[in-house]
Structure formats: C-alpha cells, structure tokens
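G., the chain you wanted modeled:
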Amino acid sequence: MRRHSVFVLLIVFLAVFLTAFAPAAAWSSPVTAAAGGVPGAAAPAVVREVRTLRAGTPEETEVYIVRASEPGPTVMIVGGMHGDETSGYLAAGEIKDWVIDRGTLVVLPRANADAIARGRRTSTGGVDLNRQFPVGKEPTTELAREIWAVVEEFPPAALLDLHEGWGIYGRHDSVGQTLITYPAGDARRFAEHAVRYLNTYHVKNRNVYRFRVVGTPVAGSLARKAGADLGIPAFIAEATAYRTLQSSRVRWHKAFAEEFLRWYGLIEREERIVPKQYRTTASTSASVSTSAGTPGGAPSAAPLLAA
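Predicted structure as tokens:
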C-alpha cells in the first residue's frame, strides 16, 4: 500500500513539474498574423457573420461580415469577380478570417462562384460580372443586384477589389501590376502609399514588377459604381500572372489589403508581416508612414481601365 502511494505521488510530482517547465505553445494564429498582429499578443474580440447570396443556384456564394468590439469605419474587400483570376479569391479567402481592431470588415471572397467553378473569366452564358454595375442605375443581373444590396446595407468608407492581369501595364496591353483608383476623397494618397510600400517590401525585380497607380476603373465595374454612386475611394488591385507564382500574387493582394485596412482605421497595429527574402532592413516591421503621399485625385479625363 505504501509503495503504491509513493508511486502515485511520484506521478503527480512529475506531472506538475512538466507542466510548470514545459515551453509555451508556439504562436501560430494565422488570423492574428495575417492582420499584422504581434506574436504572443492577444487578438481583439470580433464577431463573424456569414450570409449566403443567390442560395440554391450555381451562383451561390457567401459574404462575411467581421465586426470588432470597438466601433469604427466599414470597408469592403472583394475577390473572385473573374473566375480565372485565382489569387484574388484565394487572398480574400484568407482575409475573411483576419482579426480587426475596430469597425466592420465585409468580405466577398468568391463573388462569381459560377465562373470560379468553370475556371473562366465569365459565368455561364458569357456574363462578365464586373460589367454589371452601371453608375446611377440598378445592377443588371440578379447576382450583381444582391452584391450591391450588401454594399448598400453596409455602406463602406472604401472598397478594394482583387484581380489579376495577364501582362504588365506599360509593357503589354494589360493592367497587371497596377492599383486602379477611383479618385474620391483620399484615394490617390492611399494608392501612392500602398504601391510605394509594396514596391519597397514585396517586389524584388522592381524594373519589371513594380506597381503603379492608374485610373479610373472601367464603366460597369463594382469599383466604378461604388466610387461614383457613394463618393468613396474605390480600388482594383491588379497582380500580374506574367511569369509570377500564384503565391506571390496572393501575397501582393494580402499586402494591399493589410495596408488598406490600416489606412482606413480597421487595424491599429503598426507591425507588418514582411517575408524574410523581401526585407530591405534588418527589421521585420516595415517602417512606412501611413500619412505619406501627395493629396489630389486623378484628372477627370483619366482613361477607363479594364480589370
């Protein structure tokens, strides 16, 4: 009996010892990391809501509403308008799980689910979803109307739409490696800041792959309608598929989205996630002022650019 008691006490002692001195679990939250969080820091509380658009149809897709406990602005991020532009919906699929510090983040990762399933730019019947949003009028398809209803229910302070171009702007007949900008409010200032940040910390071969600010979004696009009808900054981020890895294009989109959320007040943390091979300083944080840039929008006669 005594030997049994000693054995039990020894087991208890070992369990307590191992618990006390075991290393803490590694910080591995992709949600906090993607949002620019500090390793080891507690993530802010958020509430997530999922809604279904076009339920029971080939166009069925989900929209995610992420609300922080602290009040703040609302912004919207969209991916998958064109089904063959993979990095947009893959990046948005991660962004929907990010943690924000304040405000409301609305994410529509797979806007054109039918086109994504087909692996084509357009949905069945050749419909280009990003041409169904005329300025000052009702959107022209059921899916476009349901998407716009979300925009109206959660009026965003700014909107970002994630796309791909097949080539590189200035080298090919393509809008790849651009941030197409609707010139409302501080849109131009943010756009100049965002491309400067990406070109410094996320683009290695800047002679070829540097991002540029251009405008204005093409007529019929969601970004054009949001900018014109709501008077808000609206952007189309175009990552080129020309001799690039999908992982690079996804990373570029996430970097644009992170700066977008920081600039418009949903993320307050200054730390940024910069891959080691792209660091230009010894620091893992990119010291880029969010007030950088020159005020002023694009001229009203700026050419319309397709996404």
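The beta strands are 46-53, 61-68, 70-78, 102-108, 158-165, 178-182, 212-214, 234-240.

Shout if anything looks off.
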